[in-house]
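Components:
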Amino acid sequence: MQITQDLLQALPKHIVIHGDEMTRPFECDGLSMYRQKPLAVVLAENIDQIKTVIELCKIHNTPIVTRGAGTGLAGGALPLENSVVLGLSKLNKIKAVDPEARTAVVEPGVRNIAISEAVAQHNLYYAPDPSSQIACTIGGNVAENSGGVHCLKYGLTVHNVISINMLTIDGEEVTLHRDDDGIGLLALMNGSEGLLGIITEVTVKLTPKPERVQLVMAGFDDVRVCADTVSNIIKAGIIPAGLEMMDQFAIGAAEDFTHAGYPRDAKALLLCELDGDEQSVEQELTKLLALFSTASTVKVATTEQERLTLWQGRKSAFPSVGRLSPDYYCMDGTIPRHYLADVLEKITHFSAHYKLRVANVFHAGDGNLHPLILYDASVDGDIEKAEALGTEILKLCVDVGGSITGEHGVGIEKLNAMCHQFTADELDVFHQIKDAFDYSGLLNPGKAIPTLHRCAELGSMHVHNNELPHPELERF
Amino acid sequence: MNIEQIQQQVLQAKPLQIIGNNSQLNTHFANTLNMSVYSGIVGYQSEELVMTVKAGTTIAYIENILAQSDQVLPFAVENKQSTTIGGAYAIGSPELRDAVLGVKVIDGKGRILNFGGKVMKNVAGYDVSRLLVGSKGQLVAVCEISFRVLPKAYAIPSSTRASIEPSQSEAKQQIKQNLKNVFDPNGIFI
Amino acid sequence: MQTKLPKALANTAHGKKAADILSSCVHCGFCLATCPTYQLTGNELDSPRGRIYLIKSALEDNQFSPSSIKHLDRCLTCRSCETTCPSGVKYSELVGIGRELIENKRPIWQKVARYGLRQFLSKPALVNLTKPFTQHSAIQSPVIERLATKGRVLLLTGCVQPTLTPNTNHTTKNVLTTLGYQVEQTSQQSCCGALDHHTSASTTALIKIKDNLDKWLALIESGLEMIISTASGCGVMVKDYPTLFETDDAYYQKAITISKHTKDIAEFLVEQDLSSLPKKKVKIAYHAPCTLQHGQKLPNLVEGLLTKLGYELTPITDSHLCCGSAGTYSIFEPSTSKQLRDNKVENLTQSQPELIVTSNIGCQLHISKGTGIPVKHWIELLDCSAALMEV
Ligand SMILES: Cc1cc2nc3c(=O)[nH]c(=O)nc-3n(C[C@H](O)[C@H](O)[C@H](O)COP(=O)(O)OP(=O)(O)OC[C@H]3O[C@@H](n4cnc5c(N)ncnc54)[C@H](O)[C@@H]3O)c2cc1C
Ligand code: SF4
Ligand code: SF4
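Structure:
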């Protein structure tokens, strides 16, 4: 293809990857269910090379798919047919740290955890911690507005980014700052999934390490009791730094990998982390332990090592489940917290109906579910069943007033579900916003926002306000 | 007043200036859309840490309701008695933007649109509810706003910060202009 | 990950094993973070996930050219990815299958070079000839002799160790003797097979290994307590012998027995009373070989032991990363190898140690080429007779 030739001519050879054989390992991201080989992959080493890629792709009318570490779970970095993948993993320098102002300026390919490691000497860290933080990049985090286990108290990526530099489709550099006058362009870029611009630099806010961090684990014999405890903690006026829930299946899988000492026979467990100054943590701990009186096991982490091991089990839970099933499909719906118990019960029914196992491990504190649907892609019909089950779960989330995705993004995977959450008018606005940034439509086209045509074909799935599906669920 | 009546006003209007309680903006135009009559709490459950209110509700009223559950707003607003939440949203501040979870708006074509939601985390579609914070009434008529609230113990001290010179560029101006055309192609909102 | 192997392959033992390993990989990318080659190049193709994909692709009958081979060759088999992988992917077994597969696709000049090196290194007579140029450390103390009171152990002497770093085996013998063990030694000829295995000469490797298994099993049956390795590269190879045989192969059970009876010297010593051993007053930095921390999955073992003995160890940045030695790697991939070594030396010398110690001869020789600070096997710190003289 001409574009490949032109890229090879304009850029150093070692950063242009082309041909079927070499581009194949880029054909998917963390969601390997969808695969598509790109024409070429460019691993840019500086901004000028990115500009060159944009320029050539515009000339050849070739879509650009930006890629960080490819850990995305919605197919955001899935290449498109005849596209060029722009990989930013080589741009991994931390450019500046200002411990006084508590900021760090980093290139887009810097791994999330690398920021915290680099500023640890100043007793600071970068708060948003997706479970994939060991590998995922800050550029990907901004593009997905990633969350993590500590977002309940410290916010999502959007709350922790001070400014970004981005390149427009015309190759122009634009700086967007939190304190900009007028509309929130920086906020808009968070979660824009590579459709509006290419993020080339990020200034993040750093958080001082709290004086004390206290993790408590509680195992419950009953899922409902566990779920209700989540609401009760918030009701009691506590905002934990992290509040995570795992069901029995996930507990077992994580325990196999980490040997963290999770209670295998509990039906569900909570990991609740308190942080702050010594006194407030002690007070909250007393309250928390009282709330855990309904638990069957309670373990208060006594050493930093114990705390980290307990978290490692949680953070490795998805791939750990991978030991138990050839494939899994990770959902990401959010719901108002007080529906937790009801929705989990429904998911159990769906699971029985479709005869596919579902493991639950999720950010309970902010109502962000992660049902993992286990299936085997080599069994005929399993993929379809998994997708149908997933759709049911997402519809349920929207119906109780939640969202189809809390942090993983829409990508390619949740396009149909978008039709359920938004009206044609709202989708129309989304498409126009894309045009306002990218008139050429070459930046990751076809992702994140379904075409109106697609939604029409699916049949109007959007539920209007006056209809009430699942009337059996109590509403507020 | 109900939302359809607001919608009618938008559909009939030539240039229209949106006002809250008239606290911040001076009106020089005959056509104003007075949102202060569209007020009240739409939904509030303290354990969810989320409140949804109509745009004309004053900050003082909201804080009063929150106080009954020992909760507070996570952002600071001046002139609480007269400022409406819609007005505060239109003027905008980074902390207010942080707290916003969802909005119901009417765009320049008179379409009622919902963006974001009532849950803490939501990345479906572009984050329009945070984009429009600071839109000064010039892009849409904001009707309802959902935002995050905090237990009193976690109240954030209202920040005083050094103002930084926002960086401007032609490309950025162009994007802003394009977005104005997305929400208000006929220039209804001034 | 969904994998569709062609029927002919899917039904073979190799194929089944590969399919199993591939399906346990969920393509999450966690392993990218700790892979030394990915850290250097930032290229998916030089990452564990990328290599797994290349192998998958080859097994699925797709094109597999020297370009792919290049990225597999760049892998150090350090197995850092295995330590990181939450899904339990047996990367090294997969890459073993992959390497065998590519062996016959290599260009002829590569085959010749690999054959030559293998022949050279595994022939003691040849290696010994180079002694005047390559010897790293000489024996520094007299041999201790004492009556065995506890039992017999077999020391794996290694194929190049006796020539290049004779003091390691020497000290080990003295320490074990001091502790009351009777030490037997393997001959230099009975190499563990790692060299052949890593350059994909499985048949040659298997002949040696079967021979070892038979000999050592006989010793165990006659009451030998433990097989002890002082080079973690040999240790991991012996411990992994069972993965080389099908479960219905007669040698499989033998391999399991031998594997269970093999320990790294540190593993053996942590269970002993070491109070009689001396401590030298030097400031040290410890390099943990991949074959020990990732391969044998014994992280922090030596660090703990040395701390117990009274040494103060400062944490080493990126201690999970390979030093670039990786068996014959430093010969076939010199530039990556050198870059990794430079990074390693920088991290090891941050605390300005007087001496660097490690657990594997490969790392020892490789690192010492990059620094003026002496590099030894940590066991040499325990040289009983030398210490006696010092006190
Ligand atoms: C096991 C596992 C656990 C996870 N846990 C969490 C979790 O707890 N919370 C969470 O939020 N997510 C989680 N994720 C999802 C994923 O890690 C995040 O979405 C992450 O932010 C993706 O980063 P990345 O660098 O891998 O981006 P990629 O996957 O490479 O890309 C993601 C999207 O961002 C775009 N993009 C990437 N870089 C740029 C850039 N510089 N400019 C513009 N667009 C860009 C891409 O086009 C794509 O649309 C998890 C994933 C896995 C595999
Ligand atoms: S063995 Fe080491 S070099 Fe090879 S892929 Fe794994 S981590 Fe990378
Ligand atoms: S960490 Fe394990 S499961 Fe994840 S991509 Fe690497 S090998 Fe596969």
